[in-house]
Amino acid sequence: MRILSGVQSSGRLHLGNYYGAIRQFVELQNEGEALYFIADLHSMTTVRDGPLRKELTREAALAFLSLGLDPKRAILFRQSDVPEVTELYWILGSVVPQSNLERAHSYKEKLDQGLSPDFGLFAYPVLMAADILLYGSDVVPVGKDQIQHVEFARDWATKFNVTYVKGYDPQDPLGKEKGHAPGVLKLPEARVQEATATVPGLDGRKMSKSYGNAIDLFGEEKETRKRIMSIKTDSTPVEAPKPTENSPLYQLLKLVAPPAEFPALDASWRQGGIGYGEYKKKLVEFFFAAFGPARQRRAELERDPGELERVLEDGARRAREVAAPVMDAVRGAAGL
Ligand code: TRP
Q1: Active-site residue, selected from the candidate residues 54, 209, 242, 254
Q2: Out of 159, 206, 222, 282, which one is annotated catalytic?
Q3: pTM higher than 0.85 for the full model?
Q4: Mutual orientation of helices 276-303 and 262-271 as an angle, nearest 10°?
Q5: I need a labelling partner for 97 at 20 to 30 A (CA). Which of 150, 159, 191, 279 fits?
């Protein structure tokens, strides 16, 4: 099974990014051949500063490695280090109905906000489909907001195969029946990460960098402590049972506490007798226990910038090896 996903790095990573995406990526590296890339080409639709993009790309790669991605197992690379992806993007674009792109969420949202989108944003889903199809991906772990994109990738792979592969039958994409040919592009499947929706920020809204309510994974120690201590709580007295609904503190404890410790914590929460301040201190403790090792690995990696570069270059080389036979078949079919 080949697993592929990309992340767009928009800044420092926080708990929401970890529990919503990165944790699953790291777990999936044991389930098949995983390819993960930092989508620096996609980031061009929003980040307009070259040196900043370089920095953000590095930051994301560092985070992956610190949080347990094993570069000997999974392939970690920069999207722009595999030039074949932009070639496939063009080839695919020639079979993409414009009407599909006009109803893409990412594009429609910008229009609704009254912004004037550029071609890059309009074409964003085509590049994403190229990312997915170039590596013959079976499974694409994504958040809910990206399902439409994976479905587009399936539709356009089918369209390409129907157009260019003689004997291809969309009802039999693997060409199992006599007289049918298998497709050149494999149809991927989205795997939706359920946890994505449930990481609350300090104020109880969804944790997001843009809301300023995030707890950064690699933030400064004192600042991290201060932020956790500022989590919004209600005025339930110390001795009273605490509500579990709409309590970001409770939800964060549930995520970050060691599984063996949570049940006792949960029981005391429902019983009363302990104040919110104490629970916040617990969360601080759990946070540093959970992410201390990753924070340390990150600091070590930072001291040796050459190491990160070597990992990414090796990843790109391996990714290109995976892409080569697919690209050969695509060029062959299309008469290029
Ligand atoms: N669009 C994705 C996001 O913003 C990032 C991405 C780019 C991606 N290419 C991909 C995800 C291919 C999965 C597969 O989250």
Answers
A1: 209
A2: 206
A3: yes
A4: 150
A5: 191
